[in-house]
Amino acid sequence: MKKRKSELTFWQKVVRYKTLLLMCVPAVVFFFMFNYMPLPGIWVAFVKYNYRDGIFGSKFVGLQNFEFLATSGKLLDLTKNTILYNIAFILLGNFLAVFVAILLNEMQSKMFKKVSQTIMFLPYFISQVLVGILVFNLLNYDTGFVNGILTSLGLEKWQPYSDPNVWPVLLVIIYLWQQTGYNSVVYFASIMGIDGEMMEAAKVDGANGFQRIRYIILPSLKPTIVILLLFALGGIVKGNFGLFYNIVGTNPILYDTTDIIETYVYRATMTDFNFMTASAVGLYQSVIGFVIVMVVNYIVKKIEPDYSLF
Amino acid sequence: MKKKLLAVLLAASMIAGLTACGGGKSDSSAGESEPAQEESSEAEAPAEGETEAEAPAETEGGADTASSDDPWADVDTSEHVKIVYMTTGDAPSGDKLARYEEMMEQLNAILTEKVNAELETYFISWTDYLSNYNLTLARMDGTVDLVGTASDWLDAWPNSKNGAFLELSEDMLKKYAPKTWESVPAENWEFCKYNGEIYLMPEDNYAQWTNHGFTYRLDWAKEAGLENGVHSWEDMTTYFRYVKEAYPDIIPWDSDGTQYATMVGGWISSHSNYVAIDGINSGAMWGGTKDDLYTVYSPYVTDTDSLVEFAKMMKEWDEIGVWKTDVLNNTASTNRDDYRVGKVAAEQHHTQTWTDLVSHTAANKIYETDEDAESGFFYFGEESQNVVALSITHGAMAVSAGSANPERALMVYDLIRNDPECYKLFCYGIEGISYQINADGLKEDPEGFNSETDNINGITNYWWGRNDDLEIRSADRDWDKIDAMYADYDKIKIEYPYGQFVAEVDDIDAKINNINEIHTNYMKQIAFGKYSGTAEEIVAEYQQKLKDAGIDDVTAELQAQFDALYK
């Protein structure tokens, strides 16, 4: 059997597996068109772009487009903010998502399960712009809801829009409120996929709820968690522009703790429509993301080869 | 077998879907699909009716006999084309759209008759207008033909450099836009050149003042003890303080967070002879002085004491409560409309806006509800008598380099700019519906006029070639006050001196970007009094950052370019 297989030529293989190949075609075409064909466009990060000459006809300027980011003196701070926020989002987000998924799984009433899942899912569909307006109307000093309550209770007003230190917490809370419902679906689905017989057996053996979670559900979720973490790590240098821009806006008092690469680049290049610089930054982020994924994947492979991406 | 069939079908439908999407996209980015589009529109044109094809032939013949002044008698206009005009402004909808279309129908009838072309408008809505504007130009696929532009607020020069605009040769202008060519003096064409080529057709025959200042309630200022109105920043403080005390329900000035640059710019021109160079960065941070125009400096680095004073006064304004506490996050301010109905006490914008606010128009309800209401204007630069006239390229028309019919675009522009009939239609709308002329020859609202829907001027936003020879003054403007103000300006103004200077910023771009960012971040805090620590400290910190970012290098580079041009 083995021998015969290796004797097959490429074309014979094509003929033999044509159905499978055919089924792959849409995905291959999709990725080729949207992820590979635009790749040469990266070149725009290295030229002085001129509309008439096009990307490849424009003058090559080397690393000049990266200069502004490097000379701003902020690259480290920005990268640090971006990464730290993303770590918080990824770790807390996944932790909470797993937690919620387990809770949902343990619920007995089907009705209650559905309703709570829907309610948690809803914020995901609210546009970031609206979230920004909601937050501003909750928290602003003059007419905000929170300050209205504080005043009526005779307490001193709270001024979050002048205090950079509260924003890391606020932003993480807002992120979790928006994303947890959505993220938990994946985990909930993989819990549903756990073999029912295992659970039955555990029950018969007298394992209580917590023990079942600890010894069956969590270990079964481990591959999912690892893979989702790996995926998330690839984007760890890419900030969540929508969230930060809509909620923090362009208030420089808060930049120390809330400025990420995206928002900085947006502000600095918005006025002169410089997409060479924007592409340069995008490339910088992609390269770092690539390195991180490779390193982490390598580490995972060393520890537990089955869980690695490739 | 069935499965196989299904797989093939699925795959096929998926690919079909993908190519359909891809096709749509490449339409806008790749130039290749464009000829196909044009061909189809060409094919449509004759199908629309033989009559149209005949029409131009008739008029051409008619023009020959009736008058020989058809400047385009020898231009081949046999093919009917569509010229797209791009402007900033929100696209009309509903009744507004209907009014606009009525007007366009009449206008296009004339344009078809005269040059066998029709006009269409491509609106760049105000949200993020600069990005969308530039992005549309970057497409270069013939989406737009005529482009409304401006050297100081719409990136006219960067776009010329990037190749977005067509070089307009003298021959072209003479042949296709003859009236425009004649009406613009030679020295003004010089201001429209970059590297020796003309790119812009300037709005150089239209009196307007866009120097900024505060519109305020003159009646309240008098109550506050300022008998002659506000004439200095200190008076402004007195005024705000009074308003806050006397009218606690009113927010003196419901500013949003974007006003910082104009504020500090206004402060500097009020306290020095600084003349800023347009179009280098949004803060206009480099320039000369009235006495020494061609020595470049940045007052943001040199005028430390003045900036400290500014920081202190703005802190005072913040403490008075001139604006909302969270002004820096305030993006939803409707201050100007609030001024019209008396909910705020000041509006910071330019003279042109004041000419509207000071007049007893239907929209300005304050004059109806309060008989004593009056609006004054405190213009920046009043204290130092430092006012610079508007650059003639504050509004200009360019032709997109991607245009398939640049000749016809020029012809259409020539008509809109110089032909009284076209001009009035495009600027004011249809007479009797959108405006009427009263006995004094002034423009007024006709019976049943609805300013929300019938104001064509507010839809077409034709700010790229207005013409005082054809302008009709509005009856509802308070011309006595406006003319008095213009006369004051004329006494002290200097012409914008740097019209010919187009900065080459390739080498200093990175520095300017970083300076922009520093300026924005610090000035927002300074101009709204939101900084911590003392005024001296924040200004020192700001100036140190500017120096670290290389502001002196930029100044030196600009000086070198100045020397090359002016010496």
Overview of this protein structure:
The complex is a heterodimer of chains A (310) and B (567). Chain A is an all-alpha fold. Chain A contains 16 helices and 2 strands. Chain A has a two-stranded antiparallel ribbon. Chain B is α+β, with helices and mostly antiparallel strands and 567 residues long. In chain B, a hairpin with a 5-residue loop joins strand 13 (436-437) and strand 14. In chain B, helix 4 (94-115) packs antiparallel against helix 19, helix 12 crosses helix 22 and helix 14 packs across helix 23 (535-548). The longest helix of chain B is centred in the N-terminal third of the chain and has 28 residues, at 2-29. Chain B is globular. Mean pLDDT of chain B is 86; it is low at 8-68. At the A-B interface, helix 3, helix 5 and helix 15 of A face helix 1, helix 5 and helix 22 of B.
List the helices and strands and how they pair.
The complex is a heterodimer of chains A (310) and B (567).
Chain A: H1 2-7, H2 10-16, H3 18-36, E1 47-48, H4 54-57, E2 59-60, H5 64-71, H6 75-106, H7 110-121, H8 128-139, H9 145-152, H10 167-192, H11 196-204, H12 209-234, H13 241-248, H14 255-258, H15 261-270, H16 275-303
Antiparallel strand pairs in A: 1-2
Chain B: H1 2-29, H2 33-47, H3 50-66, E1 81-88, H4 94-115, E2 117-124, H5 129-139, E3 146-149, H6 156-161, H7 170-176, H8 178-183, H9 186-190, E4 193-194, E5 197-198, E6 201-202, E7 212-217, H10 218-223, H11 233-246, H12 260-270, E8 274-276, E9 287-289, H13 299-302, H14 304-320, H15 335-340, E10 346-350, H16 351-357, H17 366-369, E11 375-379, E12 396-399, H18 406-418, H19 420-428, E13 436-437, E14 443-444, H20 457-460, H21 479-492, H22 509-527, H23 535-548, H24 551-566
Parallel strand pairs in B: 1-2, 1-3
Antiparallel strand pairs in B: 3-12, 4-5, 6-12, 7-10, 7-11, 8-9, 13-14
Helix pairs in contact in B: 3-4, 4-19, 11-14, 12-22, 14-23, 18-19, 22-23
